[in-house]
């Protein structure tokens, strides 16, 4: 009985035309999401070409109007793996151009087949955005012109993230006692999970000895294309529950060129 109830709350009303249908789900499926939490927007579709694009929009329930555009021109085939959305505290309203506060409001997310009339879209169940974080944000140091700084390089089968010791030191200095997940993003789209790392707690000290000096990972051709073409590269550090501890933005360069990273100010 419980499984049936979950499905009813997650897959909601679908608006269709031309025999086309879209259904959308949020993962995890909650009644509220915390600012900074990473949520996967997933969808399935029938009767629509695989070359179609979709637009993802956040709607405020009180006005039932678009509050902000999460993404446009997203490949409809991305629905299976999901679009990674980091819950914001504010956004710019596309109608008024004003910055709106989202904390405390109730919303739904709409995935719409882009450029089609009459509309083909689906809405999620409603949810509330709440403020605060599970942990205070870490400032992972990315040091000026030091060539030995935290950096991402494209090389061979995938990116190399050098000097991950900066991440390890920041976690240890802030005494983070929960396991952490390190992910690589391009813009707001998850490219790959680098790994999950657990601390060793010895008295009052925490050690993340499992985090290596450098991360090396392989990417599929699709992931490589995403890394090269879309937005800025970001290293996101979060808890297994999806709460962001830190995120660091760095440009992607070839292996021959050094780069500087810049902590995101939130």
The CATH C-level name of the largest domain is Mainly Beta
Mean pLDDT comes to 76
Q: Treating each run of at least 4 consecutive H or I residues as one helix, how many helices?
A: 3
Q: What is the overall shape?
A: globular
Assign the structural class, choosing from mainly alpha, mainly beta, alpha/beta, alpha+beta, or little secondary structure.
mainly beta
The profile of the biggest β sheet is: 7 strands, mixed
In whole angstroms, the N-to-C terminal distance is: 42 Å
> Please, how many domains?
2
Query: How many β-strand runs?
Result: 23
Runs in which pLDDT lies below 50 for 5 or more consecutive residues are: 1-15, 133-148, 255-266
Helix percentage range:
10-25%
Order of helices and strands: HEEEEEEEEEEEEEEHEEEEEHEEEE
CATH topology term of the largest domain:
Immunoglobulin-like
How would you portray this structure in words?
The structure is a single chain. The chain is built from 3 helices and 23 strands. The protein is mainly beta. It has 2 domains: 2-130, Sandwich (Immunoglobulin-like), CATH 2.60.40; 151-263, no CATH class. Strands 1, 3, 5, 6, 10, 11 and 12 form a 7-stranded mixed sheet that branches. A hairpin with a 2-residue loop joins strand 17 (200-202) and strand 18. It is globular and about 60 Å long. Mean pLDDT is 76; it is low at 1-15, 133-148 and 255-266.
């Amino acid at each position: 009985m419980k499984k049936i109830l979950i499905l009813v709350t997650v897959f909601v009303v679908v608006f269709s035309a031309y025999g086309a249908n879209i259904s959308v789900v949020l993962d995890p499926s909650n009644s509220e999401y915390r600012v900074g939490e990473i949520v996967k927007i997933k969808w399935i579709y029938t009767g629509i070409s695989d070359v179609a694009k979709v637009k993802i929009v956040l709607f405020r329930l009180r006005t039932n109007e678009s509050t902000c555009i999460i993404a446009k021109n997203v490949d409809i085939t991305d629905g299976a793996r999901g679009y990674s959305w980091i819950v914001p505290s504010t956004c710019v309203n596309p109608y008024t151009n004003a910055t709106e506060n989202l904390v405390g409001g109730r919303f739904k997310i709409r995935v719409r087949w882009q450029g089609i009339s009459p509309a083909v879209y689906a809405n999620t169940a409603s949810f509330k955005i709440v403020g605060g974080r599970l942990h205070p944000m870490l400032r992972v140091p990315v040091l000026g012109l030091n060539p030995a700084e935290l950096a991402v390089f494209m090389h061979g089968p995938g990116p190399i993230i050098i000097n991950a010791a900066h991440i390890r030191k920041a976690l240890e200095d802030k005494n983070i006692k929960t396991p952490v997940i390190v992910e690589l993003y391009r813009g707001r789209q998850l490219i790959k999970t680098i790994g999950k790392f657990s601390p060793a707690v010895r008295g009052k000290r925490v050690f993340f000895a499992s985090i290596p000096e450098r991360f090396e990972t392989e990417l599929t051709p699709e992931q490589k294309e995403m890394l090269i073409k879309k937005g800025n590269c970001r290293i996101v550090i979060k808890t297994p529950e999806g709460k962001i501890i830190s995120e660091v933005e760095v440009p992607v360069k070839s292996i021959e060129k050094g780069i500087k990273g810049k902590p995101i100010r939130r």
